[in-house]
Amino acid sequence: MALAIGDILPAGELVLADGTPLSLHHRLGKPLVVYFYPKADTTGCTREAQDFSALADDFAQAGASVVGISRDAPAKLARFAGKHALTVTLASDADGAVCEAFGVWGEKQMYGRTYMGIERATFLFDGAGRLVREWRKVKVAGHAADVLAAVRS
Q: Which domain holds residue 100?
C-alpha cells in the first residue's frame, strides 16, 4: 500500500552502516527526507548518493535530515560510503519491512526479466512526521536539487 500526502511517517527499524539501529521517528522534529534506492554501488544509486552528499550542508542549513535506504547489508553500505566518500546517512532495511510500509517494494522489469525490487522513490516529511511531498520512479539527474528546493519552500 502506497503512502498518500498527509499520511504519518511509517514506523520501522533500520540499521545504519556502522551497525547502529535507527528509527526514523527519532529524526522527527525537523523536515525529514527519506529516499529509497535499489542497490548500493550501482551507477544510478552511486550518483544519487553522491548528489545528496554534495548537498548535505544545504539540507542541514534548511533544517532537514536525509536518510537513504536500501536492502543492502550494513557492511555493504559501509563499503559503499567509504569507496565514494558519501556523507549522506545510509540505512539498511534487510527484511524489507520499511520498504513495504512505504510501498516501494514491488515487481520491476529490466531487459525483459521480471523480478522484485525497490522502486527509486523519495519522501519529504514535515517536522511532525506528515508526508508533504513524494517523488516516485525517480530519475537521478537533478533529483537531489529538486528535493532541496522542496525542503526550502
A: 13-152
CA-CA distances (angstroms) from residue 42 to 25, 37, 47, 76, 77? 29, 10, 9, 12, 12
Query: Does the residue 3 lie in any domain?
Result: no
Grid cell, residue 18, equals 556502522
Report the alpha-carbon distance of residue 32 to residue 130 in Å, rounded: 10
Pairing of strands 89-92, 65-70: parallel
Distance of CA 57 to the CA centre of its chain: 17
Query: Which residue bears the cell 554501488?
Result: 41
pLDDT digits (tens, 9 = 90+) for 6-57: 999 998 899 999 999 999 988 889 999 999 999 998 988 999 999 999 999 9
Residue 113 CA, chain-centre distance (Å), reads: 25
**Catalytic residue annotation:** 45
